[in-house]
Amino acid sequence: MSQAVFQFSSSSVSLPMDIIKSPVKSIFGSQLKSWEIEQTQMRYLDSFKRTPTLRLKALRESAGLTQEIIDNPQKSIGTIEKGSDTFKEMRHRFLSFKKDKYLENLKHYQTLAKGQAPKFMVIACADSRVCPSSILGFQPGEAFVVRNVANLVPPHENGPTETNAALEFSVNSLEVENILVVGHSCCGGIHALMSMQDVKNSSGSFIKSWVVVGKDARLRTKAAVSNLDLDQQCRHCEKESINRSLLNLLTYPWIEDRVKRGTLSLHGGYYDFIDCTFEKWTLDCSRHASKVDGEYSVKNREYWS
């Protein structure tokens, strides 16, 4: 049921002065008699009845909803039933999880209730087709996960975001041993980045303002494969942006320090959901690691198919 919203202003209603001057504290105190309360309520009600603006404001929303149901009852009922079916299925999944996993591993979940100690921090895309837990089999308590559009990591100088807030907590508080940035095929965020005509003018769009974080990956992609069509450029950039994010991780002093001490490793991953393959590599930050174009090389590259 919709709620009526009443807005009182000098242009819409004129209330009796004795109502306006009535002290608020008397309504909550013990001095106001019951007949006084009734009289006050009646005067408000009378003002409301005599003011069409207020009546229209109060009835507009509820009348609109009622008319919609009258005009198309099957659509309204179908929408309600569809929503109900969706949550029935969700309820079934939750109860199955409780029965088959939670209660079967009760001791483990009771331990998790006391605290978490994941070994992995995962940065993945918000794309509904790319769920790290489903793809890589992470179980509750194994990975601290943050997901954003195009799985980007902004450099430290860009200031606070939910992504580096999650990084700070996972590295400094949870002391994870691995950070894994997972990109994927057919990424809409990367497509938006590669389709931008001017990365310097990203105002007016939340998406553009965010994906411009990957502008370095875009520049390197344009320099390397500008002769290819847009889809092929996007595929190249999907992987290039992962490496840019890995390098951006090193702009955070507390990440760089742990990497140098060997207590934290940085990994990249690329999930191709067209043929269900996965590439994995690790940023080589050792003292003797060779660098390409002044940047770190990778090691332990694997291809899972």
TrEMBL record:
Pfam family, one: Pro_CA
First-level EC class: lyase
EC number(s) from the headed UniProt entry: 4.2.1.1
The UniProt record lists the keyword NAD: no
PROSITE patterns in UniProt: PROK_CO2_ANHYDRASE_1
UniProt record, GO biological process: carbon utilization
Protein origin, superkingdom: Eukaryota
Record-listed Zn(2+) binding positions: C125, D127, H184, C187
Record keywords, A-Z: Lyase, Metal-binding, Zinc
Keyword Translocase part of the UniProt annotation: no
Catalytic reactions of this protein: hydrogencarbonate + H(+) = CO2 + H2O
Gene3D superfamilies: Carbonic anhydrase
Described purpose of this protein according to its UniProt entry: Reversible hydration of carbon dioxide.
This protein's name: Carbonic anhydrase
Organism: Olea europaea subsp. europaea
